[in-house]
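re: that chain from earlier
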Amino acid sequence: MLSVNKYTRANTDTCRSKVAAQVSAYQTLVRTARIQRSADKARLKAAIEVFETLFFGNMVLVLDGYFVHRMRAMEGKDGNPLNEARMLCNSIMHDNNILSADKTIKHDSDRSVSKYRVGDETKLREADFTRLSSAFFAEMGKKFS
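^ sequence. v structure.
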């Protein structure tokens, strides 16, 4: 597929709604699990934490996948949230969740949304993904609408 240089507002809003629905499903699952009477609260907490980082790592893949054909020249390479999502996806898919450098992106962990440094293990939690997806959609709106 050719690269895309414009997404309709309806398309972006639909993707945003799909992301929100998946995050809401996660929140409902966790809330329900916590309400249950569990004799082993530590085990439940550990299971939720493992699930959370796997789920939100996969949500980054979903988020980026909705706009995977975006034109790289329009995306830029200044370390913006679109670049950050792409770097996280590459790390999740190819580098066993270790953030790896991308020589086409000027990554600055201090300015990034997730604050990961190259070489860090990426373990996104709900709050991390929420910040990243908000920044991602804002950047999409600025550059591709």
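The radius of gyration is 16 Å.
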